[in-house]
Amino acid sequence: MKCHTDYLYFNTKKRHEFVNITDKVQEVIDSSGVQDGMALVSAMHITAGVYVNDAESGLIHDIESWLKEIAPTNKNYRHHMTGEDNGYAHLWNLIVGHQVTVPITKGTLDFGPWQQIYYAEFDGIRKKRVIVKVMGL
Amino acid sequence: MKCHTDYLYFNTKKRHEFVNITDKVQEVIDSSGVQDGMALVSAMHITAGVYVNDAESGLIHDIESWLKEIAPTNKNYRHHMTGEDNGYAHLWNLIVGHQVTVPITKGTLDFGPWQQIYYAEFDGIRKKRVIVKVMGL
Amino acid sequence: MKCHTDYLYFNTKKRHEFVNITDKVQEVIDSSGVQDGMALVSAMHITAGVYVNDAESGLIHDIESWLKEIAPTNKNYRHHMTGEDNGYAHLWNLIVGHQVTVPITKGTLDFGPWQQIYYAEFDGIRKKRVIVKVMGL
To answer: Taking the complete model, does pTM exceed 0.95, yes or no?
Structure first.
């Protein structure tokens, strides 16, 4: 059994940004030499998400609009009493989830035709990280 | 260490349908011979969910009603400019999640008394798949 | 490859309670002897969540308020026809998620500086359990 770890780094230009990391994750899988197993892809921050869905710009716009509706960016969150202004970003992290576990078969992401892995930055313009941990045979 | 993969197939009669797949997942675990480990149960589509909750028809009705409230089916999503009409189903996928990792102890799902694994179809009446990947000793 | 399982027990004093279990999970990892791998941390109940976010009391208050907004505790859920009164708690479980998989590197949770693991009790004042299953080298 092999276990291989790598990190992806981000420093987005906009506060909210959706980055397709599918190819980067596949590169880490390639480096691991794992043919059959799983990869954990997990944001190391509490104001970012990792999810699997479609690489379609309209949908990405819909996701951000919808997040703003159910957890508004401009609300007076109690968390802001600490001096922070990113209460919404913590809630978006809870909705979207900060991690996925993805299946690997024959050395490749065992995905359906439309599945893509996204890093969803909710409080960017600063250095952030995602851990990719691959386990398997 | 063993690694075993199988796929469950669905073609639901209704556009929205909740299918209890607990027994099917246990059958894959049985085939794997894994006594101690984990199984990743993951939809291979971006308009379906996999979750663990109660096998109670009233609750399943509540879940669907609630999803319709927080991400309506009849809204004019930007995603629909591609010709699709299933924007809501992508958002439901994000809320519910498209995968779970379930624990295996002594060859059996190590679950609490009410936990059941569901495949939640949000855009059915077509062929869909769930991957079940079992890893362990 | 090692596989090690332990259970955390809860019996909260309040119906809703957020318990930081990061140290408890690290203790299980220590017991496992795993240096490189993953731990599955999963509630064995359908009215509780497990998530990773900030240990900040204002934010925890925000999370509970927000859950009450998008899935009210006092709504007449169809699930209540079974005699239950915890329909909301099942929906909160779906939003927050009932499990996380956390990465282990050099025997330690490979986390960003603010990440903490929480057990979120949504229907407490009774005995509950979380399974921690550690796999790796």
So the answer is: yes
